[in-house]
Structures are given as C-alpha cells and as structure tokens.
Amino acid sequence: MGFSISAATYILIFTLLSSTVSWAASSSVHENFLQCLSLNSNSSTPITKVIYTPQNSSYSSVLDFSIQNLRFTTSSTPEPQVIVTPLDVSHIQAAVICSKKYGLQIRARSGGHDYEGLSYVSEVPFIIVDLVELRSINVDVGDGSAWVEAGATLGEVYYNIANKTATYGFPAGTCPTVGVGGHLSGGGYGTLLRKYGLAADNIIDAYIVDSDGRLLNRESMGEDLFWAIRGGGGASFGIITSWKIKLVPVPSTVTVFSVTRTLEQDGEKILLKWQQVADKLHEDIFIRVILQAVNGSQGDRTVSSTYESLFLGNTSRLLSLMNESFPELGLAADDCSEISWIESVLYFAGFSGQPLDVLLNRSQSSKNYFKNKSDFLKEPIPETTLQGIWSLFYQVENATGMMIISPYGGRMNEIPETETPFPHRKGSLYSIQYIVFWLEEGEEVSKRHIEWARKLYKYMAPYVSKFPRAAYLNYRDLDLGRNKNGNTSYAQASIWGIKYYKMNFNRLVQVKTKVDPSNFFWNEQSIPISSWWKN
User: Fold this and answer.
1) Per-residue pLDDT at 452 exceeds 50
2) Which of 306, 357, 425, 493 has the fewest other C-beta atoms within 10 Å?
C-alpha cells in the first residue's frame, strides 16, 4: 500500500524537493512547511529555534553527531530536508502533522545506532526528528520504576538509576551510547538477559505520537499497539516519546570476568563444551563468547575465544558453579572481580575504573565503518564447522571480523514467544551477531568487507535456525529484504518479517493496518499494511 496523498501531489512534492534547487531554497514549500510547524506547536519555545536546514551553519554537526556508522557519511548518502530537535512533545506532533501534510517521510532518531542507518537516511524526501534533547529520566525507587524519555541513552539510564539506588538495575544492552527509543522497541538485551529477559519484557507504559499527531499512553493506545511497540520496532507505528520501565533487583556484589583462550590453548575444545552448557547454567550466570582472528605468539594467525561473564553473586559461589558445570574453562579466583552492578556496566562498556559520569557521554570514542548480521542457534555448532569459521576469519584483511555468541535459557525460556513481538524464546540456545568493521574509506573497500560478512553468513546456513532462518530486529540487516519506495507489499515484507518476528508478524500487520492505515510511518523494513486486515 502507498501513502494516502494523491499520486499527483506526491509527484509535485518530489519534483520540488529533488530539483537542483534545494528544498530549503524552494521558498513557497519551505515557508509553508515552517508555518505549518509553528501553527501546530504549542510549546513555550518556538519550534523555529529547533529547526535546522542545509542553510543553517549547525546543520551538518547536528546531522553527523548521532551517525554511528561511517558507511552513511559519504557524499552520496541522502540527507534530510529538515532536522527538528524537539524540546517537548508538541514539537514532535507538529513535525508529524506537517510532514504528513506535505508528503515528507519522517525518520525518528534516538541514539543513531540503527545498523542500516534507517533512523537518519531515506531515499525519498524526508525530515529527521532527532530526540537528542528529550532525555529526562525520573527514577522512582519506591515504585521500582522509571520514566525515561526516548532520546536518553542506556548510559544515562544506568547512571540515573545508580544515583538513586544500589539495589536496582535494568536489563538492557552493554553499549552506553545506544538510545532507548529504538533499543527497547526492538527488544533490547544485555548481561541480565537470562535473569530478567529483554528490556522490552520490562516495560510498564509508554507514550507515542501516532500518525494523526495524537499523544497516546498505554491506556489510550490500547493493548494491541502497546504489545507491538515492545519488540516490533516503534518506527512502524509512530514516534515513541517516553517509556516507563520496571527496574529489577540486583545484589550489592556481582562478579565479572573476561578470560581468553586461543586455539593453541584448547580453545576449540573449550568452546564446544561452552555450547553444551551456557544456556543451561544457573540463570544468575551470563557468559557470552567473542570469536575473532588474532596474531599468535609465534606471529602466525590464530583464533581467540573471549568469555565475558556477569554473575549475580560473589566469586566463591561462581567458582563452585563453574567447577561443577564448566571446569574446562579453568576459571580461577584471580580471573574474577567482585564489584557493584553499576561498576559491571562500566566493565562491559570498556570503562573499568573510570568515573560514573563517563556514562553520560553520548558520543563514542571512535567510529568505524561496519556491517552486521544475525542468527539464532537451535543446536551447537559442530566441530568441523568451527574449523571452517576459523578459515573464514583468516581471510579478513585490514578489518576486524568477529562473532559474538550470547546464551539464552533461564528467564528467556519462561516467556511465551507471543508475549511480545520478539519471538526468539524457548528453543533458541544462542544468538549470534556477525560483525565486520574497518577504518579505510572507499566504496570498493566497503563492498569487499560486506561481502566477507555475507560469505560467513552463507557458510553458517546449515547450522542455524531454519524455517525461518531467524534474525534480530536490533541487528538490522537489509540483506534480508526491503520495502520498495512508496509501496509496502505484504508478500515482500513477510520475507524478512517472518525472520524477525516469526508468526507474530501477522499480528503486527494487523496492528499497523489499524493504527496507521495510510502507511505514513514507512521505512525500508517497516511493517506493511494489508487490505485483508482492512476488510
């Protein structure tokens, strides 16, 4: 289904916006759009003060600040006609109302970590609603909850929780610069996954601006839409402005370790045993493994397996459990550190020993070009298959290729796969994130590294989940398929939709058709509408 505006109107607007004269310089369209924004904004701060066009000296810095993947900073990357950095909800409502009126797409950006840049790139005329200024966080320790605006980062959430209490945490990701708007709406997981499930499993309420510019909470949006935005991707349904999250209890002392073994240190044997036990360990133990090629002690190439763990308890109890279930790793007390939960957040973010306020830094210390893909395992990877993975790792040149494998089990086995749109629950032993990142510029360079990621993904096909070959929405991958500009086919979208959501995809289509029948909130992997559901 296409947009609700007429074809003639769309062609007129597209011509105006993509002509050699920039959209901002097309005075009538530009002025009418700005006037529309002003008329539909009720803020004490005029919306004109938070609008950036290409003629504005701050436009490029505002645009680039939250771009995390350098693949989308080239001269050929499409740029928005306007960036709005709202200071309150009325600015968002005005942006939605006026973009719909003038046939512009909206891309809402929280932290800018969409792996394919869909929160800030579009092939048709668009604006960005950048939520960077909407990041207030109110923690209620007595209630065990917090209201978090969608522009906040995970680091800011963790910081604010720790400033109020040492007995609560939140089960979200390990990268502190990730924005909560997209992270929670796609599922969101981290080191507390096996104990408390996903971030999306711990959402109590939310506010969203829908395609008519209405601000809705859980009660007014209804349970179907509330279900859809907790794992189905909020960008298909509206612009999420804030979440109410449920905080989770954490002990005063947790234990962390990071132990690396190479192939020469029985790394393959240890990995085979880890696959047998990691999803079955006590739910207080989370041990992920990171695989990558490294230089060996003799200068030759080898593969390292780094086991990173959070345990909700002390070292003594952890060693007892590890010696019972996973002695092959050879974990010793000297490998372990007893720290607080918030210190574990710093640990996994690579900031051990640094002040807590490092979590408030919204920009990463360095940025790369990268490509990611994902899989889920229903059974362990065979030994002979591992050897093929090593061979592929050795082919990476002038880049870093890796696999991050995270165990499920525990709480994830207890939550029905229809509870939220995120369906990868019981029966999914592990998730895999394939990553390749590099620093060298150039289209051919990018093409070479992306092809390596695709080659590894293809090699893994016989050994991962099937029918569908499942994928994780927050590891966005346009290789799985994409909607055509201005037209979202159910049949076409189901190719990638079933991979992300399994049978929950059909319910998402039903919700989308009901709440956004004109398909205003569209992107290359948005949920389609269906005439069948309309009827």
Assistant:
1) yes
2) 357
Closest CA to 306 of 334, 339, 342, 270: 270
Coil, strand, or helix at residue 285?
strand
Residue ranges with strand state E in 141-234: 145-149, 168-169, 203-209, 215-216
Q: For residue 4, what pLDDT is reported?
A: 38
Among candidate residues 88, 196, 193, the one with its CA nearest the CA of residue 151? 88
Residue whose tokens read 């029905």: 416
Distance CA 203, CA 215 (A): 18
CA-atom Rg of the chain in angstroms: 23
Sheet holding 126-130, edge to edge: 51-52, 82-84, 126-130, 105-109
Taking the C-alpha atoms of residue 517 and residue 2, their distance in angstroms, rounded to an integer, is 10
Range with lowest mean pLDDT among 61-65, 223-227, 259-263, 364-368: 364-368
Contact in structure between 80 and 112 (CB atoms under 8 Å) = no
Query: Which residue type is seen at 154?
Result: L
Give the active site residues. Answer: 475
Q: Centre a 10 Å sphere on the Cβ of residue 332 and count the other Cβ atoms it contains.
A: 12
pTM comes to: 0.93
Mean of all residue pLDDT scores within the chain: 93
| Beta partners for residue 354, in sequence order | none
Closest CA to 190 of 205, 168, 175, 180: 175
DSSP code for 119: T
User: How far is the C-alpha of 57 from the C-alpha of 79, rounded, in Å?
Assistant: 15
